[in-house]
Amino acid sequence: MNPRERIFVAIDTTDMEEAKFLATSVRKYVGGIKLGIKFHNINGLNGVRKIADDIPLFLDLKYHDIPNTVAGAVRSAVTISRPKIINIHASGGLAMMLAAVEANLEAANKIGIIPPLMIAVTVLTSINDDDLAMIGQDYPSYIQVKRLALLAKRSGCDGVVCSPHEIDILRLNCGAGFSLIVPGIRPSDLIRDDQKRKMTPEAAIAAGADYLIIGRPITQAPNPAAAAQLISDKLIS
Ligand code: C5P
C-alpha cells in the first residue's frame, strides 16, 4: 500500500460545502476521508455519499444497539454510502458484532462491492480508568481494550480503532492481519489540544498502525491541501 493511502482525513463539520471543499482539497494526497455523526445527523447517508463520491470513505457512525437493529443499520449504510471502512462498538457484544459482520458481507455482495472493513471501537480514548470504574469496570483500560479487541476478532471484525499507545499490545495479541486504525495523530509533539495520547504519523506507522485518522492538523490548516501533502510526503520519504 502506498503510505499516503493510510491517511484518512476526519472531516468534522455539519456543512456540506465545507466538507466538499475539504474532500476535494485533500483527495490527491490521502487515502480517504472520515465522516461521522456530526455530518451524518444533518446530511444523512445520501449527503455522505455526495461528499465521498470519488474518494474512499470511513463511515464513522459507531453503531451500538441490539443485533437485529445494528444489522439493518449496517445494511443500509453499506448500500447507500458504499464505505471502505465502517464501524460498531465492540461493547455491543459478540452477537451484535456477528450480526454486523454478516450484514456487511451480505449487503456488499448484493451490490457487488468489496466488503467494507468492519472495525470495532473498544474503549473510547476520552475514557480513562476512573470513568471505566464508574461504569463498573474496575480494571485498567488496556485490559478492557485487549478483551474487546479479541472479542471483535472472534466475531469476524477486521480490526479496531485504538490509541497510538495501544498499537503494540494489540498487534501482539491480535496478529498481523488485524487492522489498527489510529486517531490522536499530530505532525508535531508541540501541538497542544484535547488529544492527550498522541503520536506523529511516522511514529504511528513505525509502531504498526494500518490507517491514521487525522483531522484538525489538516482541516484547520490555512491550506488543507498543502498540510495533507506535507504529512503524506513525510510518510513516503
Ligand atoms: O482533529 P483530530 O485529529 O483530533 O480528529 C480525530 C478524529 O478521530 C475525530 O473525528 C475524533 O472524533 C476521532 N476519534 C478520536 N479518538 C477516538 C475515536 C475517534 O479522536 N478514540
From TrEMBL:
The EC number(s) this enzyme carries: 4.1.1.23
Catalytic activity: orotidine 5'-phosphate + H(+) = UMP + CO2
UniProt keyword Lyase present: yes
Any one cellular-component term (Gene Ontology): cytosol
Active-site positions on this chain: D60, K62, D65
GO molecular function: orotidine-5'-phosphate decarboxylase activity
Name of the protein in its database record: Orotidine 5'-phosphate decarboxylase
Organism: Candidatus Endolissoclinum faulkneri L2
Protein's job: Catalyzes the decarboxylation of orotidine 5'-monophosphate (OMP) to uridine 5'-monophosphate (UMP).
InterPro entries on file: Aldolase_TIM, OMPdecase, OMPdecase_AS, OMPdeCOase_dom, RibuloseP-bd_barrel
Protein's pathway: Pyrimidine metabolism; UMP biosynthesis via de novo pathway; UMP from orotate: step 2/2
Binding site for substrate: D12, K34, T125, R186, Q195, G215, R216
Taxonomic classification: Bacteria, Pseudomonadati, Pseudomonadota, Alphaproteobacteria, Rhodospirillales
Family: Belongs to the OMP decarboxylase family.
A Gene Ontology BP annotation from the UniProt entry: 'de novo' pyrimidine nucleobase biosynthetic process
Keyword DNA repair appears in the UniProt entry: no
Keywords attached to this entry: Decarboxylase, Lyase, Pyrimidine biosynthesis
Entry superkingdom: Bacteria
NCBIfam families associated with the record: PRK00230.1 (NF001273), pyrF (TIGR01740)
Domain Orotidine 5'-phosphate decarboxylase: 6-231
